[in-house]
Amino acid sequence: MSLLTEILDFNKTFTEEKMYEAYTTTKFPDKKLVILTCMDTRLVELLHKAMNMKNGDVKVVKNAGAILTHPFGSIMRSLLIAVYELKADEVYVIGHHDCGMSAIESEQVLGKMQERGISEETLNIINNSGIDLDEWLTGFDSVEESVEHSVNMIRNHPLMANEVPVHGLVIDPGTGKLDLVVNGYETKPVK
């Protein structure tokens, strides 16, 4: 049985037995916050439990490393929509210790791409189009510095409302312990 078949079989039971009713909520976050965090599998349930969040409490945006790399990319757009359309009043950037992005080196990723059939020609075309794949695929040295960088990009974004606090935290993926990096109530944008 394929993974897709397994998922679809379970989903059939899930909907027929109305298991979804336990998760009924609205599209607006009850605790009026949006979180940018990492896509790490250890955080799927741990992060919410460590913050006392349940289904419906929070909007969550995930990517590799909880890194905001472009001020007008899809991550920033999602955060702005959460604030202006979905009633989030605070933003939390939450990185984590032992993050895979701290060990990422572009050469390794590019090599793996080529092993799986991406041609050197394709990589050259992308690099020659103004996208620096080495920079784009490089991770970070310090999770705290990475979180602070993302917080600063969000807080100082020209379209982010000044009154929205942007906090930065780092979670331990083993214990759920949160360490404060930036208290958004104490810092103001420098727009």
From TrEMBL:
InterPro entries: Carbonic_anhydrase, Carbonic_anhydrase_sf. GO terms for molecular function: carbonate dehydratase activity; zinc ion binding. Keywords: Metal-binding, Zinc. Zn(2+) binds at C38, D40, H96, C99. It comes from Siminovitchia acidinfaciens. Its EC number is 4.2.1.1. Its cofactor is Zn(2+). This is carbonic anhydrase. It holds the Pfam family Pro_CA. Binds 1 zinc ion per subunit. It catalyses: hydrogencarbonate + H(+) = CO2 + H2O. SUPFAM superfamilies: beta-carbonic anhydrase, cab. It comes from the Bacteria. Belongs to the beta-class carbonic anhydrase family.
